Amino acid sequence: MLVGLTGGQGFIGKWTTKELRRRGHAVLILDHKKRAAEAYSNDPTVDYLWGDVRDDVAVMELAAHTDGIIHLAAVLGTQETVDDPRPSATTNLVGGLNFLHALKHYDLPGVYICVGNHWMNNPYSISKTTVERFCHMYRDEHGTRINQVRAVNAYGPLQSAAPPYGPAKVRKITPSFVCRALNGDPIEVYGDGYQVSDMVHVADLAKTLVDALEHAATGNVHHHVLECGPYAHATVLQIAETIRDIAARITNSDPVPIVHLPMRPGEIPGDTVTADPNTLILAGLTPPEIELVTGLEQTVHWFHLENTAESDGYK
Question: What digits encode the pLDDT tens for the residues 24-71?
């Protein structure tokens, strides 16, 4: 298949591109920023279409030249979007509807990525979950071949950190904890840390996304959302402690302290964000296989190598 991929230059998008290529698919990435295109400049299986998911013509053009689409592009962030929800609403809602309409118009299979905290009242969760409901409508009313994958917190190598450790606009749990621990800075945990936030290695998530597309392409459309996450749950505090201990071993230093900050706007203290991997088994898909400690070991080692390659810290 020639697979259209929105958000293909993001963290999950890079791993999804890798998985698609591993299975012999070609990839056409739709992106509005001409960044890092040189990464695939010598690869004939990856090409770019410059455009914005908010532009229905660009998304329709992507659909016209592909055999299916995985839609990952979105404005991310919880506290980052509360003060001004408009970018989330515009990109996530309009972009999602453009994606669905293009699938319907060309009768293509597609995959939409859903959020784990779909019930939370923040712009990211609200906008993403609204499109999730539109996916059900398009499937039921138009027969659109679309599967939905609900991902919990994705982590792994290649994920960008937010300032002062990296250029990311959104602060994500794993890069934040890892960079602080490796730099000898206290790990900052929002709230008491007893909230549960399940983690899935991005390689496992990429496999599920591609599995879901291949299922849709053969007409195997699942009426339930496919939830990609682990069986074993972990609190945010447990994740912080695990990363702290791994970083201390790697750097041969004392474990850094863990400090607690007030909860961020748009999040609920003590909440639980989990997935039910049995939804994958019921659909004939394989649940995530990389255990949390193993995945975090790999991730911390990757960040450590990235840091030691730079004289002035993380880039």
Answer: 999 999 988 766 555 666 788 999 999 999 999 999 999 999 999 999
What is the H or E stretch that residue 37 is in?
A: none
The pair of three-digit structure tokens given for residue 186, joined into one six-digit string: 């206290």
- For residue 164, whether the previous peptide bond is cis, meaning omega lies within 30 degrees of 0, is yes
Task: Show the tokens assigned to 108.
Answer: 């293509």
- The crossing angle, in degrees rounded to 10, of helices 236-251 and 292-308 is 50
Instruction: Using alpha carbons, list the distances in angstroms from residue 166 to 50, 116, 141.
Output: 25, 25, 44
Mean pLDDT value of segment 220-235? 95
Nearest residue to 204 (alpha-carbon basis) of 174, 237, 226: 226
Closest-CA residue to 7 (of 102, 78, 73, 104):
73
- The total of other beta-carbon atoms located within 10 Å of residue 54's CB is 17
The DSSP result for 256-284, as a single string, is PPEEEEPPPTT--TT-EE---THHHHHTT
84 Cβ contact list (under 8 Å, min separation 6): none
CA 115 vs CA 38, 66, 95, 167, 270: distances in Å:
30, 25, 16, 23, 18
Instruction: Reply yes or no on whether the pLDDT at 308 is more than 70.
Output: no
Strand, helix or coil for residue 146: strand
Alpha-carbon distance of 287 to 198, in angstroms, equals: 14
22 confidence band (pLDDT: 50, 70, 90): very high
The confidence band for 119, taking pLDDT boundaries of 50, 70 and 90, is: confident
pLDDT 10s digits, 150-207: 999 999 999 999 999 999 888 899 999 999 999 999 999 999 999 998 999 999 999 9
**DSSP class of 55:** -
Q: What percent of the chain has pLDDT over 70?
A: 93
